[in-house]
Design a protein that fits this description.
Strand order of the largest sheet: 1-11-8-7-5-6
Strand content: 5-15%
Helix content: 40-55%
Radius of gyration: 19 Å
Oligomer: single chain
Shape: globular
Bound molecules: NADP nicotinamide-adenine-dinucleotide phosphate
């Protein structure tokens, strides 16, 4: 293996430690701790695991978390009322509705009901729009975390050729906006892209978020490229793997994220960061 490993666990731990320090400093000044409200609808096991990670991370850094767990048959208007309640609560800085939601509930309607200045997932069209207009406020957690991982390698994104494989609202699209904001030259691929191996082989930075295990082959990677694997798949043996053929890609790449221990821990760390930033936003409104 020639690639250097991008240690997401270590980068995330360092970010969480900085957040803890900032929250301790707030409390020492007599300011309140940030508050995060999480709504988990139903009992999807994967969502329960994610929410549990988020709750534990809050505890570690000193964010006060509240988790509501309404039944899967909650009516949409009742869920919106819960969101409204947290929108109006001055002790709640961040609101997160864990996705996916049951089919009878419209995810966009719920996401858009969250006050943009409490939208710590960064999915609200206002926050996506701010990022698109080079004035980011609360940034989508996973792409924001990927930018921190790239920063940790010391490589320059300015002028780099970046290929994003996947164009979903929660990963691919905001990832493209983040890389564009960082002055990379971007190409975004979706399921209709022609000659994907050819496109990927041109990339200095490849971010893969397709949702198909080992979809990107090692031989497609340009020698020395940075490979960020957002994919997450749990095998029958319980082991996690990503969207990239790790071993083969690591033979060619300059830097690569492992799965687990790459992007995953960063998503939670950036949620903590966003909750702190939202709290600061509420206490210190921006001038513009
Ligand atoms: P998604 O909503 O299913 O989107 C997948 C994207 O991949 C779509 O844009 C789709 O294109 C594109 N795609 C599908 N087949 C393709 C192909 N043959 N060539 C090029 N593009 C193709 O998935 P997602 O929510 O973005 O998640 C992607 C992966 O990331 C999943 O494994 C998920 O578990 C993981 N994830 C991890 C984290 C984390 O914290 N580590 C966070 C979020 C997601 P179309 O637009 O044309 O359909």
């Amino acid at each position: 293996m020639s690639a250097k490993i991008i240690d997401g666990k270590a980068v995330a731990a360092s970010i969480r430690s900085d957040i803890k320090q900032a929250i301790d400093a707030r409390k020492a000044e007599g300011l309140r701790a940030p508050g995060l409200a999480v709504i988990l609808v139903g009992n999807d096991p994967a969502s329960q695991v994610y929410v549990n990670h988020k709750r534990k991370a809050c505890e570690e850094v000193g964010i006060i978390s509240t988790v509501l767990t309404p039944e899967a048959d909650i009516e949409q208007h009742e869920l919106l009322e819960l969101v409204d309640r947290f929108n109006a609560d001055p002790d709640v800085d961040g609101i997160l509705v864990q996705l996916p939601l049951p089919e009878h509930i419209n995810e966009s309607t719920v996401t858009e009901r969250i006050r943009p200045d409490k939208d710590v997932d960064g999915f609200h069209p206002y926050n996506i729009g701010r990022l698109a207009q080079k004035r980011p406020e609360l940034r989508p957690c996973t792409p924001y975390g990927v930018m921190k991982l790239l920063e940790s390698t010391g490589i320059t994104t300015r002028g780099a050729r970046a290929v994003i494989v996947g164009a979903s609202n929660i990963v691919g699209r905001p990832m493209a906006l983040e890389l564009l904001y960082a002055d990379a030259t971007i190409t975004v691929c979706n399921s209709k892209t022609q000659d994907l191996p050819g496109v990927i082989s041109q990339a200095d930075i490849v971010v893969v978020a397709v949702g198909r295990r080992h979809f990107v082959k090692g031989e497609w990677i340009k020698p020395g490229a940075v490979v960020i694997d957002v994919g997450m798949h749990r095998g029958e043996d319980g082991k996690l793997s990503g969207d990239v053929e790790f071993e083969a890609a690591a033979e060619r790449a300059g830097w690569i994220t492992p799965v687990p221990g790459g992007v995953g821990p960063m998503t939670v760390a950036m949620l903590m960061q966003n909750t702190l930033e939202a709290c600061q936003l509420h206490n210190e409104p921006p001038l513009d």
